[in-house]
Amino acid sequence: MSQNPVIVTRHLSHTYVAGQLRKQALLDITLEIARGSCVAIVGVNGSGKTTLVQHFNGLLRPTEGIVLVDGIDVSAKGVDLQALRQRVGLLFQLPESQLFGRTVYEDVAFGPRRLHMSRREVRSRVLGALETVGLPPREYARRAPFELSGGQRRRVALAGVLAMMPETLVLDEVSIGLDGEGRAEFYSYLRRIREERRVTIVLVSHDMAEVASLAEWLFVLHEGHLVMQGSPRSVFSQGDALREWGLNTPPLSELLLLLRKQGVAALAGKVNSLISRQALTRSSDSSSSAKAAGRSSSNHK
Ligand SMILES: Nc1ncnc2c1ncn2[C@@H]1O[C@H](COP(=O)(O)OP(=O)(O)OP(=O)(O)O)[C@@H](O)[C@H]1O
Ligand SMILES: [Mg+2]
Q: What is the number of the ligand 1 atom nearest to the C-alpha of 52?
């Protein structure tokens, strides 16, 4: 466990109550999120991911157990929720649908203005945040959000959270709906945010490729329980268990990337060459058998 965790939950349970209906969404979750790390919370629909992260900035209160952010119990009496939400920025699915400013600048400035900062401070935060997400202010600040592409709008929403200078950034399924290129771009900005701003990132996702390429620690939720946690390498090595919880291991290419990132380039290279050798053998096998069978070898690929 981490020496200096930014978020800790102990025996956290959450039950939604609506009239006679009760739904136990989280059961006895104990976890720690290391400061400055990028972690992912994975699990199928309804496993409790959103419920869990909403405890990290006080949007939900534990039914049982405690949640500590920087050592402060978020449900203690007299906790400054505004300060907490400034520390832990939460971006929801389809965040661009929450843009409402007349211009990109106005939108990103909304949060800092509510903190009663000087105009100069607001301006510097807005411009800095837009730069970080790859929307140069000269070009974008005065544009209307609705004129931008979906991916750009999402980055405006991200800039809005960054302008609050959070220590922790929680992203709840924010890459959904972006195409491959849009996603890759979004990830590259996340990496940049980590490097430049040293924030802790909590990704909620059920896309294992995304998780493999970004996170260094995974928490797996299933029906409200924390059923597994560990490095991506150790979690992905338990494919059978993951499948039981409705999850897949990431595609091979992502695993290779992961191996390379973790400093085992030689091993990754070896696996790569084995795969290409195998592919060669297979295609020569298939072309000879295809000839014999009078079929096209493309069927074998
Ligand atoms: N406001 C609510 N009232 C009652 N039950 C709820 C409420 N919000 C969520 N739930 C239930 O709690 C469980 C966990 O929901 P949650 O939204 O945390 O799951 P999730 O892992 O984020 O799912 P998804 O991948 O679909 O976003 C589900 O069974 C859900 O139906
Ligand atoms: Mg959710």
A: 18
Is the shortest distance between the CB of 205 and ligand 1 below 6 Å? no
Instruction: Give me the domain span that covers residue 94.
Output: 5-231
pLDDT averaged over consecutive 10-residue blocks of the chain (301 residues)? Answer: 85 95 96 95 95 95 96 92 90 80 94 90 95 94 92 91 94 84 83 88 88 91 97 89 89 69 62 62 50 40 34
CA distances from 152 to 107, 127, 130, 134, 243 (A): 13, 15, 11, 9, 34
Global confidence as pTM: 0.84
Tell whether 265 is covered by a domain: no
**How many Å lie between the centroid of ligand 1 and the Cα of residue 281?**
48
Residue with tokens 């790569």: 272
Query: Does 243 fall in a domain?
Result: no
Report the separation in Å between the CA atom of 224 and the middle of ligand 1, taken as the mean of its atom positions. Answer: 9
Three-state DSSP at 229 gives strand
Separation of CA 46 and ligand 2 centre (Å): 7
Kindly report the CATH number assigned to the domain that includes residue 128: 3.40.50.300
State the DSSP H helix or E strand holding residue 11, giving kind and residue range, or none if neither. Answer: strand 5-18
Q: How many structural domains comprise the chain?
A: 1
